[in-house]
Amino acid sequence: MKNSYIAKRYWNLKASLIGQKADPSLLYHDLIDFSIGDPDLNTDNRIIEMAFNDALNGYTHYTESIGRLELREKLVKYYKERFGFDINIEDLMITTSACHAMTLALEATLDDGDEVIIPTPHFGLYTHQVELARGIPVFVETYEEENFQINIDRLRSKITNRTKGIILNTPNNPTGACISRENLEQIASIAREYDLLIFADDIYTIFSYGEPFVPIATLKDMKARTITIGSFSKDYCMTGWRIGYILANPDLIFVVGNINDNIIYSAPTISQQAAIHALDMRDIIQPGLVEEFRNRIFYAYERLKSLKNVSILSPMGTFYLFPSIKATGLSSEEVARRLLEEAHVLVIPGNAFGELGEGHLRLSCTLSIDKMKEAFDRMEKMEIFR
Known about the structure:
Order of helices and strands: EHHEHEHEHEHEEEHHHEHEEEH
Strand order of the largest sheet: 2-8-7-6-5-3-4
Distance between the termini: 43 Å
Radius of gyration: 21 Å
Oligomer: single chain
Strand content: 5-15%
């Protein structure tokens, strides 16, 4: 895309396989869509109603640029009650989504040419976010046969004098893997040894079906070197509200706040109000969400496990499954195309999540079990799966 009006650094830009997806529902009226990581459940009506009343009562103006004090106070209380972790108001900034938070964090910390290690398969936007901050993404491989844990020797081999930090996403999109407590401690040890930052993308915290979720920031001597990215999108089914936060040391919060003043100034007031209500009702709302998505993902797992040419790990976390289809002898994109054309089932090919995603598909179990049953019934009839 050579165009003299566009910065040269974007001339070779390619759309991600996620971002370039056309709308197949225009072709197939009976499409079943496993592609997008957006829960089909609406935000709890009580949150909507309270936020609506807040708008009527005048919460339609700017807030403090780093976020409403009341919301930051609620987050301080949340971390203390949920994880026994003491943080301060000064450690927090409210953002318009976790993607916004990650972009700000990388912009505030990377010098030109700094390297950021990304375990892969990985959320596709990480690569662009690092590059936009003039950094260099460096990938450390994780494998299905290792339960997608991070091999410490492999991680160590990727570290150079220019390594600034590691992006850590657990529970993980796309693999659904949860990093074990032992693996987390090993990663923390590496960060301390080499004086690295951890960019902790903690946005699926309630969807950990085995070991309880542990924020890496809570481990010994990790608070000062961890930038935690939080979000209300998945844990509260609030994707469209676009509300998240950064938890980091006050010096970094000062910098990201000043950067953000030039972008959006403050997160939407009404979304911040909704987040306040969500935190107040988390013990009422979240158990039902966890149970619903646990039931869905284990149902989908059992159906996928029964298909010929498919191998899959038992679900660990999130609402994503990342089955291997290598035994078909076809590429991820070929299998995804056949699923769409033959079964009218839409999935994302694994290579959208890096080279190591090849041979896999990502299914987002954000559909009812009845709808998923119909999808898997169709898939069972396909030649490549029987």
